[in-house]
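Design job #97: recover the sequence.
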């Protein structure tokens, strides 16, 4: 049983088919062999019956049995003729010198002849002669039974032997059937084997791809449909799980950013609130302060209040972009006009610090987006360059040889300055919220630490990207790509 289980399904199926074919052909061959042998036996009996009738006719005409047996014409080399009366006694036998006295009524061929008129025995040994004969007996009208017999010589055995050519033909038919059965079972076995491998891999939870085609038939088509259906279901589950993980990661990232933002806001609020509280407490505690000192404390309160307002505005803007980007209204706008407006607004401040703003973007430059967010992108970049670069020139230019569009119909612009730049290790973190290179200097300049983070989020919200690098000659070089 263990050995049987080790055999593949196609081999077991072939063995069953082979056994069935051999059994079917074997039964047919045995049946046909028996029929052919019976046919040849019947032919021999017919020939002997004709001889018996001839002898009976001559005996009825008064001829002597000895004379008749010697004058018979027959195709046999040796023919034994016997005459038996109704009592079963042999009255004549042409092969014996002494007539046996034993009754022959129990002989099969004699009993059948007395009962039905004729009978034969295929093979029986004679006690009188010591030979084996084929007996054929016929009953006459006078009650006598004439029995002729042919000894089993080589010629008689060959005569009664079935034609073995038929066996060779049936053997060839069996071989052809088994050969065809081998190919059929092997093809079916391939289906079963592949389906079994598929079921085992599916049970183990392995990833299954539609890469192993089945043979092109009805069963193969069904198998291919099953595998493709399972692969599609598996892919759908994988996509669902991946989207779930991405959504979960995004949710956790939002929570982390919110937590970080809350902590940073708390930290950023401490300084201006503490400064305002100190100024107010000083003013209340010292009524005799000079006007100059009183004005100084009030100016500090005003500056810290403005810083708080800017911080709250920036936090409100960046929170809105994080939590509800779909609520940001978009409409067709001219980006070139927005850039020109920002340059005009920032021009006086830049000129007051000895800086020049060069705008190389010419319009119209149509884009679908939010005008206030795109304006904040360029305003924050210019304000940062004015406050921290230390250069004397700020440039806004098309990046691709004077053209604002690349091959994918995207707008590509650059914002750069010729200042001092930043150390290389700070560049990867420049767009992080509340990240400052020089914290003391940034707070003195009134920055909230959210400007570049707002720039990046606004660009991403418009389906674009932004990157920064140090210029070889000094200063920062921002590359902005926006989708139209």
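Job complete. Output follows.
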């Amino acid at each position: 049983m263990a050995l049987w289980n080790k055999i593949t399904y196609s081999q077991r199926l072939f063995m069953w088919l082979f056994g069935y074919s051999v059994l079917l052909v074997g039964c047919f061959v045995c049946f046909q062999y028996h029929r052919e042998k019976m046919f040849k036996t019947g032919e021999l009996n017919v020939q002997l019956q004709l001889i018996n009738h001839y002898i009976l006719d001559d005996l009825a005409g008064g001829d002597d049995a000895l004379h008749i047996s010697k004058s018979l014409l027959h195709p046999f080399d040796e023919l034994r003729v016997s005459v038996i009366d109704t009592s079963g006694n042999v009255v004549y036998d042409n092969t014996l010198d002494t007539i046996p006295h034993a009754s022959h009524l129990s002989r099969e061929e004699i009993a059948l002849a007395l009962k039905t008129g004729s009978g034969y025995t295929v093979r029986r040994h004679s006690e009188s002669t010591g030979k084996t004969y084929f007996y054929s007996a016929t009953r006459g009208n006078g009650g006598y039974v004439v029995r002729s017999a042919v000894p089993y010589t080589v010629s008689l055995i060959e005569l009664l032997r079935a034609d073995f050519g038929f066996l060779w033909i049936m053997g060839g038919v069996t071989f052809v059937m088994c050969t065809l059965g081998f190919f059929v079972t092997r093809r079916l076995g391939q289906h079963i084997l592949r389906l079994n491998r598929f079921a085992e891999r599916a049970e183990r939870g392995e990833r299954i791809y539609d890469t192993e085609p089945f043979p092109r038939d009805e069963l193969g088509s069904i198998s291919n449909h099953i595998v493709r259906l399972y692969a599609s279901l598996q892919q759908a589950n994988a996509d669902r799980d991946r989207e779930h993980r991405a959504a979960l990661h995004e949710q956790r990232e939002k929570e982390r950013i919110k937590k970080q933002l809350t902590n940073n806001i708390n930290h950023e609020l401490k300084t201006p609130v503490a400064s305002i509280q100190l100024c107010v407490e000083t003013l209340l505690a010292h009524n005799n302060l000079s006007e100059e000192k009183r004005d100084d404390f009030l100016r500090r309160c005003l500056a810290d209040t403005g810083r708080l307002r800017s911080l709250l505005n920036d936090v409100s803007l960046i929170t809105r972009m994080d939590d509800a980007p779909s609520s940001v209204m978009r409409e067709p706008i001219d980006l070139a006009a927005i850039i020109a407006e920002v340059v005009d607004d920032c021009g006086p401040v830049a000129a007051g610090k000895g800086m020049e703003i060069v705008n190389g973007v010419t319009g119209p430059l149509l884009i679908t987006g939010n005008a206030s967010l795109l304006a904040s992108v360029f305003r924050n970049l210019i304000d940062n360059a004015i406050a921290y670069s230390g250069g004397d020139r700020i440039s806004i230019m098309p990046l691709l040889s004077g053209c604002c569009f690349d091959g994918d119909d995207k707008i590509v612009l650059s914002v750069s300055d010729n200042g001092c730049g930043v150390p290389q290790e700070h560049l990867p973190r420049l767009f992080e919220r509340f990240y400052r290179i020089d914290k003391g200097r940034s707070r003195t300049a009134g920055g909230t630490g959210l400007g570049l983070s707002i720039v990046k989020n606004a660009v991403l919200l418009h389906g674009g990207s932004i990157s920064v690098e140090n210029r070889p000659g000094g200063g920062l070089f921002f590359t902005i790509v926006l989708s139209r």
